[in-house]
Amino acid sequence: MKQKLIIFALPFLFFACNKPAGELVGMGVNGSFVEAVPYGMVFVKKGTFLMGPNDQSAIGGINDKSVNVTVDAFWMDETEVTNDEYKQFVTWVRDSIALRALVMAGMEDYCLTCNSEDPYLADPEFAHLNWKAKIPWDTDDEEVRDILSFMYYSGEDGLSPTKEMNPSVLQYRYEWLNYDQAALPENKYDVNTGAYSPNATVRVDTSYVDETGVIRHETITRKLVSRRDFVSSRIVNVYPDTMTWVRDFQYAYNDPRMKMYFSHQGYAQYPVVGVTWDQAQAFCHWRTDYYNASNKVKAQDYRLPTEAEWEYAARGGRRLSLYPWGGNYVRDNRGCYMANFKPMQGNYTDDTGSTTMKVGSYMPNDFGLYDMAGNVAEWTSSAYSVSSNTLVYDMNPNFQYDAKNSDSDVLKRKVVKGGSWKDIAYYLQCGTKTYEYQYECRPYIGFRCVRSFNGD
């Protein structure tokens, strides 16, 4: 038996000796890593295209010039984020708040680290939550009901005798690194001294909830001592604004859609709307953490696409395509419309839709992406400027400005692409762009996520 073991060990010893001792041999990564396909996403290969308008402005505006640019490969959601998918985010936020409230009340069944010897992990405010514990929403335990009562409408705010969740308590906090501040010459890290300049400062955002429960956003200037000082934080209410249907279209009976569009299962596969750019950013941050918590191999961040990425993906690999389907017209050879938009004044239904439709109701483009024109317009990460193409670099271009809370509104405009159910055909063109303020939400603007590709 011992002789056999020695024989089996010899190949291993021979293999281990292939790398000479004391030489630069690396850490053993053989370069065979293949990134798994993210669920619900399609691969957009790297390429070069002519970015910018292909047609004159329909409203008499001055068009940006077209520029030849290159974009790296990335993953992109094959459809816009749906109500059902966004509801997963809202539900996670709701449950995390409920679990934290139970832990803060001393109920250790909902806590994984409250008995830890580490003081930080034992602190109920920072302890890890037990996500396997069932939240007792319908319990008869009066103490538990009292702990969770703040999550419901009460008194005059209640719209019916049944319990209704109060959207204003569904708050999500996230952080991000201010690369714009890190890129400032005066904030350069000195590798010779191992420190930043003594006079270096950063301008970042922070949020807090005041004593009345209102979220307050502030811009602060802090001394730059470590990399952590580049971090901004924001608290956002994650529930979509369902009132936007009646606010944006007055003198129209949109009340049923307002009440049911996000909550009713009949609209589960419709694109989520009534979501601000800030809420879309929060969703991307949550999606990244949610993925990384369940996977050993961490992924690139989920994020909103840049204007260039979105336009390149919409063109489907066609260099000069006017629309995502490649043609110069909005009808196919049978006379059927190719997207959900407004064909003519007062007529919304010739394309088979009136307002939003289920995602994927029309054929995808050559990359396999659905609804890159019509249905709902989509947020991008890029800041809006009429002449941004004259400023951007020709490799992965992005006109980006991370507007601070104290900045003027004009600096908070974000590029919106693709056109929507209420727009004319001009806004469906791949090269057309418009904007919306990052704190506004509309019943015709949604979003989809992208993720950078780990490879060439």
Tell me what you see in this structure.
The protein has 456 residues and is α+β, with helices and mostly antiparallel strands. Helices cover 19% and strands 16% of the residues. The chain contains 9 helices and 14 strands. The chain has helices spanning 2-16, 83-104, 119-122, 142-148, 179-182, 244-248, 255-260, 277-292, 307-315, and strands at residues 41-44, 47-51, 67-71, 74-77, 171-177, 201-209, 215-223, 231-237, 302-303, 377-383, 413-417, 433-437, 445-446, 450-452. The chain is globular and about 70 Å long. The model has no long low-confidence stretch (mean pLDDT 90).
Indicate the mean pLDDT: 90
First-to-last CA distance: 50 Å
Structural Rg: 26 Å
Biggest sheet record: 4 strands, antiparallel
Could you provide a short overview of the structure?
Helices cover 19% and strands 16% of the residues. It is globular. It has nine helices and 14 strands.
Question: Secondary-structure blueprint of this entry?
Answer:
Elements: H1 2-16, E1 41-44, E2 47-51, E3 67-71, E4 74-77, H2 83-104, H3 119-122, H4 142-148, E5 171-177, H5 179-182, E6 201-209, E7 215-223, E8 231-237, H6 244-248, H7 255-260, H8 277-292, E9 302-303, H9 307-315, E10 377-383, E11 413-417, E12 433-437, E13 445-446, E14 450-452
Parallel strand pairs: 10-13
Antiparallel strand pairs: 1-4, 2-3, 4-14, 5-8, 6-7, 9-14, 10-11, 11-12
Structural key phrases:
19% helix, globular, 4-stranded antiparallel sheet, 4-stranded mixed sheet, 456 residues, alpha+beta, single chain
